[in-house]
Amino acid sequence: MLTSTLLPATITPAATLIDQHGRPLEYVRLAVTDRCNLRCFYCMPEQGIQYMPKNELLSYEEMLRLVGLLAGLGVRKVRLTGGEPFVRRDLVPFMERLAALPGIDDLSLTTNGVLTAPHVPALARMGVKAVNLSLDTLDRERFFQITRRDELPRVMETFHALLEAGIQVKINAVVMDGRNIEDLVPLATLSRDLPVDVRFIEEMPFNGGSHVATPASLPWHHGRIRQHLENHFGALAPVATEAGATASEYRIAGHRGTVGIIAAYSRTFCGTCNRLRLTAEGGIKTCLYDQGVLDVRALLRGGASDADVVEALANAFRYRAANGFEAESQRPLHQLNFESMATIGG
């Protein structure tokens, strides 16, 4: 268990916080770093991005304090993201402390898999329920073209290690016109014999200036992805999902696992969104498409009390944009292309 300095006695679990659109707060995506060991085309330019100085990133102690306070507001699920979480030192001991926080009963992780395999036994021991594995192709040459690194064998080592450990594996594949369309069917075929969920994600414009992304340049929307899969596998049977799910999930006849489609650019799931994002430098985003609504790092390092932080967090969540289009329209600058997914929480 954590020390009392990280579990304030004045904060007790509360009824779930509801925003002005009737959506609950139950889930936080926690970015532990903005650094990454790949250079994926859809995330950043080949030369990388300007990373935050280390002293400007939240410390593990600060993250633990914030998640403890968020648990008091109704958060029960935490997903660690980045950047790539495993490029930050001492991640596993931090996760063990995070898993021990009262009120947090679902701890999961998104990773590119390059550094993950040696840590899989520890993830299983601490009760990690699921791992989202970023995998856009099963072809080694195309993997190199997309990520600019020759690391597919290590990613596949992680994939098999997770399956052997009995951890639920969700593959995240970004669908990119002209780059990996031929990989959609092979990736979906993994669900035939293996208990995996293969989710196809609409490409988003957060690429750190790698290229200009507009609706016209992102033609693989959720409807087209589904049609492409049905052209090969036949009709996809919808599967019921939990409240707040971002993926529309489907079962292919005769397959053990499922396939899913995440309309991340079309933003069809905003009406049930139950999450907020905490960026590595301590920014709160109540929508992927907003420009940040609260600087909690400034509160923590400015001596704010737990009650002050809780009030600020609650207010940030209560007054949210109705959807990603409204959040985008409220930005002073609408140029999403200059942001990288690595800096806003994977």
UniProtKB/TrEMBL annotation:
Top-level EC class: lyase
Chain residues that bind [4Fe-4S] cluster 1: 36, 40, 43
Binding residues annotated for GTP, in chain numbering: 29, 79, 110, 170, 275-277
E.C. number: 4.1.99.22
PANTHER family, A to Z: MOLYBDENUM COFACTOR BIOSYNTHESIS PROTEIN 1, MOLYBDOPTERIN COFACTOR SYNTHESIS PROTEIN A
Family: Belongs to the radical SAM superfamily. MoaA family.
Full protein name: GTP 3',8-cyclase
Organism field: Hymenobacter nivis
